[in-house]
Design a protein that fits this description.
The chain has about 130 residues and is mainly alpha-helical. The protein has a domain at about 5-90: 434 Repressor (Amino-terminal Domain) (Orthogonal Bundle). The chain has six helices and two strands. It has helices at about 10-25, 30-35, 40-45, 65-70, 80-90, 105-115, and strands at about 5-10, 75-80. Strands 1-2 form a two-stranded antiparallel ribbon. The N and C termini lie far apart (about 85 Å).
Length: about 130
């Protein structure tokens, strides 16, 4: 069942979309629990994150995460797995996890300098008489 891609903006939207997909596939919560390998009734907890016994799916997904993604020109997109796989295979762009960046610049260069400036402090205590 193909679906139109949707940009995820917050956790509530994600939960609603996932619940809608489950219903569209005609799966009950217990069936989904079995399919995934979750404990019984865990799907009901995940689908109701703000209730007393609910479970949060994305603890980080706040306005901060959305602003961070937007600031980097990125978005989380929910789409059909087959279409996503096909889209990734057909793309000629550099994968985001293989971008040409140096993480933490100067880390290698300053490593020896930091080690040479490290001073060891040894404390000696006298025995009590």
């Amino acid at each position: 069942m193909a679906v139109r891609p949707v940009m995820i903006r917050n956790e509530d939207q994600f939960v609603q979309l996932m619940r809608g997909r489950r219903l569209a596939l005609g799966l009950g919560q217990a069936e989904l629990d079995d399919r995934i390998g979750w404990s019984p009734a865990y799907t009901s907890k995940v689908e109701a994150p703000h209730r007393r016994y609910g479970r949060r799916v994305f603890m980080f997904f706040t306005n901060l995460a959305d602003e961070w993604l937007e600031g980097l020109g990125l978005a989380l997109v929910l789409m059909d797995r087959r279409e996503a796989t096909k889209l990734c295979a057909e793309s000629e762009a550099t994968p985001i996890d293989q971008a040409n960046v140096t993480h933490y610049p100067n880390r290698e260069r300053d490593g020896g300098l930091l080690q040479s400036r490290t001073v060891r402090l040894t404390m000696t205590y006298r025995k009590a008489a």
